[in-house]
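Entry 14. Two folds queued back to back today. First construct below, sequence then structure tokens.
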Amino acid sequence: QPDPEEITASSDRDEQYVIMAGPGTSLTIPGIIVSEIVIALAKSSPVRRIEVDLGTRPTMGLDRAPSLAAAHDVALRPGLQRHRAPRNARARKQAFREWIGPDVKAAIAYAWPGIDNEWIRGFLQVANAAGVPTVVLCASLPPSRQTRAVSLVSLLRHADRVVVGDTAEANELVAAFGS
């Protein structure tokens, strides 16, 4: 039985598009950032957004004024196709398999420190199995020095490209990856 939170959109299989996955709640900073990325990508390519909000209270501590969020809400943009990822890991991975296929030209995930990013592993595995190039954008590394880059290595090791906030964090990731 389909997840009641899932938003499905009709698909046009004749056109290649970019998949952008990340926090979807437009009332949060991560959701606003993902919306901005989607808007920028949509200027040069069709984009489909996968909203991944795993917590029971996805806005806790990250909420912003509704007026600011409304200005960035891609739901208000015509022509954008959106999907809401199921919260159940198994159902979510199956949904990724349905949404990421040969007509996807790039699969991009957005990681935000401090929230559950475990979904990225399945997202990358599905994209890699479909032969789709992958990119992970990461605002910054987790705050704990002890587990900063190392905690992300197993999660991001299947990405073709990883982009982080600054040069020092990029160097830390390179050291953890060993290349």
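Second construct, same run, same settings:
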Amino acid sequence: KSVKTAFLYTEADVKDQKMLGKLNGLTKKFPNDARLGLYRGMILQDLKRPKQALQEYRRIAELDADGATLNSIAWRMLEDYKLKDDEVLQLAHRAAQLKPAPGILDTVGWIYFRKGDFEQAEFWLYAAYKADPNFAEITEHVIELERVTKDFQGWKAAYQSLIADEPLKGFYYSNFASD
């Protein structure tokens, strides 16, 4: 079993290496294409080259990127690199200004939550929830905020009701079901 698993990982690395080569060529040809840079950074992460990936994310953040791309970078810097500083928050705010979609508002709120600024987290997470109350990840973040600050049981019931028909919709479900 472990030999098969090792083979699969090696095969995936070879595919990632080939993809990285293609992306490197395209990035040289189109250096200002933020989406290409995002994909390049993701492949670098997959290849366990986090410093190069972070460097690529920071490079793209300087480009004229769209809101969705900036949000993806901010989220990866927050979740994968555990960065909670102003750099990540500024990226998320830029993304929200360009495209104030619920998922992007959620990212801004979640960064504030991770920084411990619960007042700002509440503002942004509730705005995201109000914009799309059926977005499970946003609801999960509001529940986590409520668990830390106030009425967790009320939100837990709302969340369980939200995912009752689609249990896979809430990938953090087990965290809340046992509390």
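Quick look at the second one. The two ends are 36 Å apart (CA to CA). Residues 112 and 121 are 5 Å apart (CA to CA).
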